Amino acid sequence: MSTAAGAGGELEVVDRTRLPYVYSADELVGMFLAAYAREESRGSGAEPAFVKQKRHEIRRIVASGKAIASVLREIALRMPFLDKLHPFYRDIIDAALGARAYKHAVAKIGNAHIAVRAIAREAINAVRTAPDKSGVLHARRMYRGRIVSLIEDLRPELDRMREIVALLRKLPSIDPRAFTVVVAGAPNVGKSSFVRCVSTAKPEVAEYPFTTKRIHVGHVRLRGDVVQVIDTPGLLDRPLSERNMIERQAVLALRHLASVILFLVDPTYHSGFSLDMQYRLYREIAESFPAPAVAALNKADLASGEELERARKLFSPVAEISALECRGAGELMNYVLEKYYVPAALERLRASRR
Fold first, then answer.
1. What pLDDT is recorded for position 285?
2. Is residue 185 located within the same domain as residue 64?
3. Would you say 182 and 218 are in contact if contact means Cβ atoms under 8 Å apart?
4. Which of the chain's termini has less CB crowding within 10 Å, N or C?
5. What is the CATH number of the domain that holds 25?
């Protein structure tokens, strides 16, 4: 995990390259049995057969137990530590599984590696004290059965962790530490066109958790710093009351990213959404997110004078643009950066010098 300073100390940011591969229960059972079988018999030819059998069995127990214990420990240690995780990722995991269930699953997998070592120690002692060959075989059966049962007991937790890792790997490349402009508005108001206009490079398109939607992540480079511009089609385009609980929680995770919300308004009839509906959505977003929200009119070149006047009265827009042709988009972005990014950057600079 990489870290970022936050109000509560160091906040971890998910590094997808460091997420573990989470083996399924079936894979772990196969790995355990293969490690057990792979250990070959060694020793002096003059050594009594029973002593040689015991040594071979102990080596099998040590090798197979170590293999499984190390894998379980690695999975647990490389899963994100929820209490130190950035709130954006924390909310996503909470929506996917629940914070308590996630912590329980990670702890159970982590504690299982200790249990494997304990079972191996007991099996080694049973082999050493076995009075005959049948005693050794009994210790073997008990050891293998207990390890397989332990792995089977972990099946639900392993399945959940596999889902969480797959979810985190598919998250868009968003840096929650960066200054972020979240572009919102009703469908078809020109959000993606605006992001393309102001981005330094072609925006990344990625899936967003728990929705069938994709988001567009653009970047504006400023003297060594990077500002993110995120278009949220299908996310911040309708009231939260119309969403199920999981989808609502996933959408609200965006509040941890937004430094400012830029709400685009279509004053014409082209989007299919009335100005009253767009205004209600604007008010809900402004009330649901702690970040400041500003409105701008798009498609100003297509709107009639009457449509523009009504939209101006409702939204008090900071700009009127035509994103399709990028007319006014750069000026609007500059306004947002000067009003919100520059003060935040200066404050970070002052804080670093204290």
1. 87
2. no
3. no
4. C
5. 1.20.120.1190
Tell whether 111 and 211 lie within a shared domain: no
CA distances for 92 relative to 159, 163, 275, angstroms: 17, 12, 32
Rounded Cα gap, residues 145 and 126, in angstroms: 14
Two tokens, residue 167: 């979810």
| pLDDT tens per residue across span 221-239 | 887 789 999 887 666 666 6
C-alpha–C-alpha distance, residues 262 and 294, integer Å = 5
- Reported pTM: 0.78
Q: Are 124 and 188 part of one and the same domain?
A: no
Angle between helices 155-170 and 25-38 (to 10 degrees): 110
- List beta partners, residue 203: none
pLDDT value for 236? 61
Task: Return d(Cα 62, Cα 123) in angstroms, integer.
Answer: 10
Q: Pick from 258, 85, 80, 268: which is nearest to 190 by CA?
A: 268
From CA 307, how far away is CA 237, in angstroms rounded?
21
Task: Clarify whether residues 185 and 158 are in a common domain.
Answer: no
